[in-house]
Structure formats: structure tokens, C-alpha cells
Amino acid sequence: MRLARIASADGVAFASIEGDPGDGARVREIAEHPFGTPRFTGRTWALDDVRLLAPILATKVVCIGKNYAAHVKEFDGQIPEDPVIFIKPNTSIIGPQAPIRLPRSSSRVDFEGELAVVIGQPCRDVKAQRAADVILGYTVANDVTARDQQRHDGQWTRGKGYDTFCPLGPWIETELDPRDLRVTTEVDGAVKQDSRTSLMLHDVGAIVEWISAVMTLLPGDVILTGTPEGVGPIADGQLVSVTVEGIGTLTNPVQDR
Ligand code: MG
What we know:
There is one protein chain. The protein has helices at 69-75, 131-134, 147-153, 157-161, 204-212; strands at 2-8, 11-18, 26-30, 40-46, 51-53, 61-65, 84-88, 93-94, 100-102, 109-111, 113-119, 135-142, 145-146, 166-173, 182-187, 190-196, 222-224, 232-233, 239-244, 248-256. The protein has 257 residues and is mainly beta. The radius of gyration is 17 Å and the shape is globular. The mean pLDDT is 97.
């Protein structure tokens, strides 16, 4: 199932998207929340008649740093033994087509295309083999980063935490094997990143085990699984698109704040 959150003339709701999103898909409204077995209200729209929002409301976005060897090489060359984790505040989340706003305080803001995991139930101490049981599905993320501030500060909260620095969407795919998906990022149509999730140093199961040993994960929480090589800057007026095979494409314009 493709789960989305939509704004229509009737308000904001969760929904499922049925049919080909490129050709006449319908949107079916879900009552309350998408966890467990969704209950449908019976209201539907054409996909073109609604606006897609960030597909989930998260209490936190937990991210893995340095999870592809080729990206570690371009960052600092130091491959960590254990997963490196950090948090982006939920106020950084935006949906498809919403502008990424570049703060004046940074002179270098980068895109980072990533596969994102959406948690479906409260959980802690989840073993890797059981991770699928607590996952609602997968979406596409852009871990937007003020690279100059990330390097300057030595820790990453400021450089990763600005409002609009966590585009998510366009929807959550619930039927997906995350182990070998193509991840690509384009800026104004030029391919900048092109890799596969099979090259992660720590796979989705290991990541869920590692994070849930530290903190309770709640329904809707999002895990960003790390970016492959090819990260680079974005500038006012550009359009950045991240595509994950089997999910779809997340596109956002870039604007100066
Ligand atoms: Mg990242």
C-alpha cells in the first residue's frame, strides 16, 4: 500500500494512493491514523486534486551518518565500527514540493538523498531479525545539511537541524524489500548520486536494532539510513529530486531564506 498525508478542500488526512500515480490514481481517505489496519472513510479524490504533505508525523527523525563507504571517503575517510547516529528535529520535516530554505548563516548547504524507514509501533530493544515487524514502510528523504556548520561544530545538530532540512515523501510504500534499491539524486535534472542500498555498511535491520537499544521508537518515527557518495551543494532557484526504486521521487525547490 502507498500511504500518504494529504491536504484537500476538506482538510488534512492520511490516505492511501491507488493506481498509477502518473495516470489517474485515486486517493482514499483513512480515518485517524495509518497504523495497524487502516479504516477507510469512503471519501476519495483524484490524486491531482489533493496536495501531498510529508507522509507522516514523527516525534523524532533518527539518522545514520557515514553508512556508505564511498560517501565516508568523500567526507573524512574514517569508517566507524558502529553506526553513527544523530537526530534531526521534527520541525525540520517538510513534504514534497515545499521549498528547502537556505539559512543566511551557511555558505554551503548540501543535498543527501536517502532511503527512510517509518516505524509502525512503539518498540525498544528490537533484534535485527525482527525489525520488519516494527516497520510501517519506507519513504524517500533528503538529509539537507549545512556542510560548513557540520564541519565547524564537530557535532551535527545545527548543520542538520534547520527548518525545512528534512524533506520526506512523496508517500510511504508498505510492501518493499529495502535490501537492494537504487537511490538517485538529481539537481535540475543532472544526476548527482546513483547508488544502491545494498552498499550500506549497516543494513536496515542492524540500524533498527542499534537505535532501539538506545531509545524507544514511536509510531511515525523516521530513520534516515545514510547517503551514498556524490553529495553536493544546492542553491537558490534549483530543484532537487531524490528517487528510491520502488517508492517514487521526492522533489523540492530551493530558496534563500
Ligand atoms: Mg545523511
